[in-house]
Design a protein that fits this description.
Largest sheet: 5 strands, mixed
Number of helices: 17
Shape: elongated
Helix content: 25-40%
Number of strands: 16
Structural class: alpha+beta
Strand content: 15-25%
Distance between the termini: 128 Å
């Protein structure tokens, strides 16, 4: 602790008085000494402050210099369009078919953006950009380039030619950044299955690819997961078969003057979908926007094979015959009353033509008798019929790995009455997707085991717990379906060497205001081949077909869907590795067809 010096030191004052000296002088000296000491202390304090400030500013200048040096040594990085806390994951796994062929992959390209404050000639840049990209709005670009914005997206995706053309402009304010673009090298093939992608989180040096539809959306998490180390998503599709089926179906749609067409090829024993086509379709590289008005089903984005629910007509008679045999009501040879019309209250059920008073169960299927099927439903009962259709998956969504399938719920009557059962027996009053029908027919011909439709090459095979009908019933149904092609309504469906079987179905199209449209139908052929040991199920449907080669236009499935199906089988069977079986050769696994 500092001891202050006294202004009037007693010893010196007493001594001064003894000598006759004025004591006031001593006090003045003491006051001057104290002031000198105080000024010295304040000077040291000021010097210390100046030293500290000098040191602080010196360190600050050193830090700034070091940072500037580090920035100068780094590779230049353009500012991001947006700021995000997490890094952008730009890598997305490929999608391949069952043979490893690429269905979706990534392409290195570039994005174009502008920094208006760095532009040397904004007007010249606008003229050059409009020449390269005719879809750009020059007035909008002028407002953006001459306004207060410091960053402007010009194009998210550039082709290599466009990239070079932009560089040739030589404008320092136009900059490009690397980008990964999702590429579908096969164009419209499998468009409804693959779906599409969009950019999610974006920066100038990368962008996140996010699935928006199809398997791109369904398996988005897998495709984006770095932990998968880039392993592709393998689908059950066969690209060559898909291509051939789409080509034939497109030609058939034009030939039959149809509004739309759809096809599903499924392995009978596994439920794996080898091909699925919905026309009209689109190129996923340029996916159109969803419609904002009109009927969504008229959009090319609508997947008619897996998303559209339709009354599929007489194809359901196969299920009616299966249930009749399973319940013991009929055998293939049992005679069914087909005298018509069948009257139930105010309703009348008629056949396409008069088939006589009786038909065997086989001929009810071969000739496609509505009356015979309705009478079987009356004996089976509505509850039994509903339970069976539920057991084979006709009353729930198909479970296919597509997001749109969740909304594709089958439609059936709220009250499953006897008349409902009678019409459902021949495919009216219940609406399902072609994928539902494919899975149901597969269970009928594969020995009786229900399969779950899947687009994945990896699958869970059905077990005995999945049995829905007996093997003997399945064998009998295969015989009936073969007879439909040999001598029935699908005689145009024969493909030499491949023992095609199936069931035709022609259903009137419902009108929005109720009832049915005049002269407009959905024609369907549910086929399986080879019937000696069915490996594949093929469903083909045409929307509003009209075959006009004869004197009168024809709309029934036998004249429209069946010939298109036979051409598809003729084209794809060799691609599937099926060896033609000559008519005089019977394979070891052949089914002995009964005569009727």
């Amino acid at each position: 602790m500092e001891i202050r010096r006294p202004l009037r030191p007693l010893a010196r004052i007493l001594k001064a008085r003894s000598k006759g000296v004025d004591p006031q002088k001593i006090e003045a000296e003491e006051r001057a000494a104290r002031l000198r000491k105080q000024r010295s202390r304040e000077k040291r304090r000021a010097e210390l402050r100046l030293g500290l400030m000098s040191a602080f500013f010196s360190l600050a200048f050193i830090a700034v210099g070091v940072k500037m040096g580090m920035i100068a040594l780094e590779e230049p990085v353009e500012p991001a369009a947006r700021a995000y806390a997490t890094a952008i994951i730009s890598q997305r796994a490929n999608i391949v078919d069952r043979n490893g062929a690429i269905l979706a992959t990534n392409l290195r390209t570039a994005s174009l953006y502008a920094t208006p404050q760095n532009m040397a000639d904004p007007l010249g840049a606008i003229d050059g950009l409009v020449r390269i990209f005719p879809d750009l709005d020059p007035d909008l670009l002028l407002r953006q380039f001459t306004g207060k914005r410091k960053f402007v997206w010009v194009k998210r995706k550039l082709s290599p030619e466009q990239h070079q053309a932009v560089l040739d402009l030589g404008e320092p304010g136009l900059l490009v950044g690397p980008r990964e673009l999702r590429l579908y090298p096969n164009g419209a093939f499998a468009a409804h299955i693959l779906g599409g992608t969009r950019f999610g989180v974006e920066g100038v040096r990368s962008a996140e690819l996010v699935g928006t539809a199809g398997v791109e959306f369904q398996f988005d998490e897998y495709l984006r997961d770095p932990a998968n180390d880039g392993r592709p998503l393998q689908l059950s599709l066969d690209l060559t078969v898909q291509s051939a089926m789409r080509q034939v179906l497109e030609g058939g749609m034009r030939l039959m003057n149809a509004k739309a067409a759809m096809g599903v090829l499924m392995e009978a024993d596994t439920g794996r979908i080898i091909s699925m086509v919905s026309l009209p379709d689109f190129d996923p590289n340029y996916r159109p926007d969803p419609p904002v008005s009109g009927d969504p089903a008229d959009s090319p984005l609508f997947n008619r094979a897996a998303q559209g629910t339709y009354e599929l007509g007489s194809t359901f008679k196969i299920f009616t015959a299966a249930l009749a045999m399973e319940t013991g009501i009929a055998t293939p040879e049992t005679l069914i009353d087909t005298q018509g019309p069948l009257v139930w209250g105010r309703f009348k059920i008629r056949d396409f033509r008069n088939y006589g008073p009786q038909l065997s169960l086989v001929d009810v299927i071969v000739k496609s008798s509505n009356i015979g099927s309705a009478r079987l439903a009356m004996e089976i009962g509505a509850e039994e019929q509903k339970e069976f259709l539920g057991r084979i998956g006709m009353l729930e969504t198909s479970g296919l790995e597509l997001p749109a399938v969740r909304r594709a719920k089958p439609m059936w009557p709220s009250r499953w009455t006897e008349i409902s059962a009678m019409t459902i027996a021949y495919g009216h009053g219940i609406a399902v997707t072609p994928v539902h029908l494919a899975a149901g027919i597969a269970a009928m011909v594969n020995g009786g085991l229900r399969v779950r439709p899947t687009l994945l090459d990896d699958y869970t095979p059905p077990t005995e717990a999945d049995r829905v009908i007996s093997e003997s019933t399945s064998l009998a149904l295969r015989d009936m379906m073969r007879q439909v092609v040999v001598r029935g309504t699908a005689s145009l469906g024969e493909v030499e060497g491949y023992q095609v079987g199936g069931k035709t179905g022609t259903a009137d199209k419902p009108a929005r205001e109720g009832g049915y449209m005049e002269g407009k139908v959905i024609s369907t052929f549910a086929a399986a081949f080879p019937m000696s040991n069915p490996e594949y199920v093929l469903i083909v449907s045409l929307d509003e077909p009209e075959e006009t080669s004869g004197l009168e236009s024809r709309r029934t499935a036998g004249w429209t869907a069946v010939p298109v199906t036979s051409e598809i089988i003729r084209r794809i069977a060799p691609l599937l590795g099926l060896r033609p079986i000559p008519e005089n050769e019977t394979p070891a696994t052949a089914l002995v067809l009964t005569s009727n």
